[in-house]
Specification:
heterodimer; A: mainly alpha; B: mainly alpha; elongated
């Protein structure tokens, strides 16, 4: 069994700091597109964190989850942008 | 081993650019500049981080004949392709939606889209629909 704190945990902690900064922007954002930008950044960093987590524990299933999460977050971002634009679905 | 050094250098570069994305999201004054920081820097950082994971899988596969390493490398490459295809399209959609919903750039000197007619097709659709509705109401 691999030890819990290997070198990839440092990378995961740094990505957690990025996610915390994006969450501050999501909470403080003056307008709605600022919050959407923060959520989009959080989505990308979560995908990278899933890939790092799968590499740290030699588990391939986390990376498959990351692929599906990338496509679903892309679709959700497009729908939120369409809603902000004020068009008809 | 030179592969380990390359893997660690890629990890450091990727983490550095992701932290820059977070700092840019906090410090920039505008939606468009925040979008610039939060999308480009995360895309560039994810290229390097997932590239290091792909190199690690290839190293395991090549030097110790581990089949799990090849699966790791190929699936990580597909995740990288998904990020590279979806991230700029989402950023473009957010910027377009922000400009059309009335959020203007804060300190911009030139705004080329300022005097252009916005939502021409949507206006056409809505006017056609309302004229149809009025005709129906008259009847």
């Amino acid at each position: 069994m691999m030890e819990f704190f290997n070198q990839y945990m440092i990378v995961l902690i740094a990505l957690l700091v990025c996610i915390i900064m994006s969450i501050i922007r999501v909470v403080r954002g003056p307008t709605a597109p600022d919050r959407v930008v923060g959520v989009d950044t959080i989505n990308t960093i979560v995908i990278v964190g899933m890939v790092i987590f799968g590499a740290a524990y030699q588990e391939t299933i986390y990376i498959d989850v990351a692929i599906v999460y990338a496509i679903l977050s892309f679709i959700s971002t497009l729908f939120i942008a369409k809603y902000l634009e004020g068009g008809e679905f | 081993m030179i592969f380990d050094i390359i893997i660690y250098v890629f990890l450091v570069i990727g983490v550095f650019f992701n932290v820059l994305a977070g700092v840019g999201l906090l410090r920039f004054p505008d939606v468009y500049t925040r979008l610039h920081a939060g999308t480009k820097c995360t895309t560039f950082g994810s290229i390097f981080i997932i590239g290091s994971v792909v190199l690690m899988g290839l190293k395991d596969w090549w030097f110790s004949n581990d089949v799990n390493g090849s699966v790791l490398a190929i699936h990580s490459a597909f995740a990288l392709i998904a990020i590279l295809l979806t991230n700029p399209v989402g950023a473009h959609a957010i910027a377009r939606a922000a400009h059309r919903s009335g959020v203007m750039p804060a300190q911009a000197v030139v705004d080329d889209l300022k005097n252009k007619p916005i939502k021409k097709s949507i206006k056409k659709k809505k006017s056609a629909k309302t004229s149809l509705d009025e005709k129906g109401g008259e009847k």
